[in-house]
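Tokenised fold entry reproduced for absentees:

. . .
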Amino acid sequence: MNPVYYCGWRFFRTIYKLYCRAKWFNAERVPTRGPVIMASNHASFIDPPLVGAGLKRDINYLARDTLFRYPGIGWLLRSWNSVPVDREGGGAAGLRAILDRLLAGGGIILFPEGTRTKDGKLQPARSGIGLTVIKSSALVVPVRVFGTYEAFGRHKKFPLPFRISVKYGKPMAFAALRAEAKSCPKARLKEIYQQVANEIMIAISKLEPHEDKESFG
């Protein structure tokens, strides 16, 4: 971690623990080196730093490209390994930036649902994450956040001290689908993207909250 990232990491981790009694489970499942996609459900603005705060390795985050236009904010976002993407989080430039980070051996957090849930429930996965997975060689770690909708969902104007937690799942490789994608017809390729996305979302849904001892990878 660079010094600025570390300060942010330490700040968010401390705030989450003190204000929301945050806990992180099974962080040891996340590889400490090499490319990895953290695929998480999305219930709140506080989700990205919460997922990252449970790990001892730095990861990359997506941030709206327009924010990088402001000198101070842009510098801070770059120091925090933020990847500029357009408003919808897609586009060729955004995909290239994400793949570049993974190619360099970095980790990145992506949200299969594409946007924050409106009712606290898990939403269907969009195919975009499937495309990213197939185009990369990264392992995929399903991640589920708990309590962040209640703490600071769309319906909240200010974060509440609701208990929150994160659970990291077992890495997924998708070797067979990556191999098939190299030579399959275009129509099948689109099916593969959605299939990958669906399998990731199923893995996320199977992660249940528990009261095991907190683990810190």
Q: What stands out?
A: The radius of gyration is 17 Å. The chain has eight helices and seven strands. Strands lie at 23-25, 36-40, 61-64, 82-85, 107-110, 139-146, 165-168. The domain at 3-205 is CATH 3.40.1130.10 (Glycerol-3-phosphate (1)-acyltransferase).
